[in-house]
Design goal:
- The protein is an all-alpha fold and about 450 residues long.
- About 70% of the residues lie in helices and about 0% in strands.
- It is built from 23 helices and no strands.
- α5 packs antiparallel against α6, α6 (about 130-150) crosses α7 and α14 packs across α16 (about 310-320).
- The longest helix is centred in the last third of the chain and has 29 residues, at about 345-370.
Amino acid sequence: MSRSLKISLVASILILTVALVVGWTDRQRLASSRERNARVISQAAALGISPGSPAKKDAVLITKRERAPRDAAGKREVAELFALLKKADATEDQGETNAEFEKIMARLVSLDPEATELLIKDLLADKELRPENRGGVLGMMLMKVSSDNPQAVLRLLPDLFGISGKEDDDQQMRSTLLTTSLTNWGKKDPPAVGKWIRENGARFPGAINDSTKCAVLSGAATGDPALALSLIDEMEIGDKDRAVILITRAARTAEGRTATLAALRAHFSRSADDDLKGEVMRAAFRELATGAFNEGFGPASKWLETARLDPSEMGAAGSALEFHHTSKETGQWLDWLGQNLPADKVGEPIGRIVEKWTEIDYQDAGRWLTAAPEGLVRTVSIQAYAGAVSKYEPEAAVQWAMTLPAGRDRDSTLRQIYQNWPKENTTARDAFAKEHGIE
């Protein structure tokens, strides 16, 4: 395919085009079409093109064809492309057909919005193209428009019938286009989308639901989380808690998390239900913290410091930390938890992380424990380490437990070792219980 190809909706092309051809009875044509789709997608991926998003700075720059002038010139361009589609569609040689379609695709995806909409209308009215080819091209063009000019797709939706020959497939396509168009539009003008939904929702029963509305608000939150939160009630979303979490999850950067946190605090400061507010906010803090944890210890700890979380908020954030976040920085994270979480919140995340660390690499965890300073973090870590090791090396677990000061922590660790002691070694287990007064 030409290297000038520009496809901004590769994933959507795959979903829609394959969905439209599922019902083909001609297996040979199905295989050929799938091969063609896969080649388009593979080549687009090689060009560094991602679905539905602006080109990244490091992505390969795509040379576009000159936009067709409006009116007469645009109509000529569309007429020429439509004629080429029909010619390729009528070709019996499958290899030649594939090559022709690849050339045509490179031109189709570079059409300006007006020409694209004109071509879509021609495709909708056409009765001659093979259903698989017509449906594939139409699906691709519609998904392109849903990104470039989503309002145009919303205008076309009532006419999107009889595309694939199966009403279920057409309904799925309309629902996907509806959600995608509303989401893309919502990134630019969420209040306008809310207004459109109120005025047009009844025309799409079952399609405009909480999931659709939440997708719109999630897209809007990438630019203005405060505005997205303010639209929850206006859009009449039933599951408001889920909407808050999806809006929170849209924060992808440190700046985005900071803006979202400020928006959440302002939004819930007006809530009269303290219990509900606390529960939802804790879940939101976990989401924000998880996004930070995925960036590694340095960036995450810096953001959490600047976020100025109170002890309750910090406890909620710390409870989201998992071993797959800490990886090679587990020791640093354990120290951080001990320094930043309230004393009554330290045990759960540290115990859970050390237990997983021990299961994956008990030697590495043991080396860290050996050098760990006395204190709450070390005590909780030894309890978790001994508990994990006791399942297969109880004697080693006992040695670790005995490094704890005499008292409740040591006693509870020894009881856990007794409970985990391999059942086949009853003699040693009974002797251990007798030595430490465990009944």
